[in-house]
Amino acid sequence: MDAKDILGLPKTPLTIPQEKKSRLPKDSQRKPDGISREVYMLTGGLAPLMPSLDVSNLKRRTQSESEKITWQWLPFTNSARKDDLQLYHWSVDVIKYTDEEYEKYLTDPAWSKEETDQLFDLCERFDLRFIVIADRFPSSRTIEELKNRYYGVSRTILTARAPSPADVSGHPLVKDPYNVAQEIERKRALSMILSQTKQQERG
């Protein structure tokens, strides 16, 4: 007597029908175009988490002439040399204004025309190296004052000469105007950090 006799089960073995494995149509297993076989086998045909972009299809924004800052490759000589060797360096194209433009757009009670002319002459001679310009400037002006006057005048002339403000809205001098208060605060914070003692740094 076995377990089947005790449970009253028939002696014939019970046949369990096997489910047929469903096969996907061949069309669904076909490798999509544009995917290598190795990648398809590794991913199992799953879509990537991030869509792939063809960089060549992206549109590149072109700058208009009014949005560019012009640099020139200019010759110069070293006064310390006696052989008249001519060297070259990149020089920024400083904006020039007329007397009429100054009277119409650039008058400022804090600046005379003579001072402004001297500033722009030094900016052109020393390629906007404002530390050198401040050292050579005849009046007592801070670097921040010199920068603010130069960039303010340049921005005003650019806007005045443009057919409309939108034509120069992307120019760096217009888009990111010089901020005197922010520059002074930045230098003050930097000076505080640099003047800290080792004990203060540890604390």
UniProtKB/TrEMBL annotation:
What the entry lists under InterPro entries is as follows: DAMP1_SANT-like, Homeodomain-like_sf, SANT/Myb, Swc4/Dmap1
Localization per Swiss-Prot or TrEMBL: Nucleus
> What GO terms describe the biological role, i.e. biological process, of this protein?
chromatin remodeling; DNA repair; negative regulation of transcription by RNA polymerase II
What do the Gene Ontology cellular component annotations say? NuA4 histone acetyltransferase complex; Swr1 complex
Protein name per its UniProtKB record: dAMP1, SANT/Myb-like domain
Span of domain Myb-like: 107-156
- Its primary localisation, in coarse terms, equals nucleus
| Pfam families in the record | SANT_DAMP1_like
Please give the residue ranges the record annotates as the region Disordered: 1-34
Q: What are the entry keywords?
A: Chromatin regulator, Nucleus, Transcription, Transcription regulation
Q: Which residues lie in Basic and acidic residues bias regions?
A: 18-34
An example molecular function term from Gene Ontology annotations: transcription corepressor activity
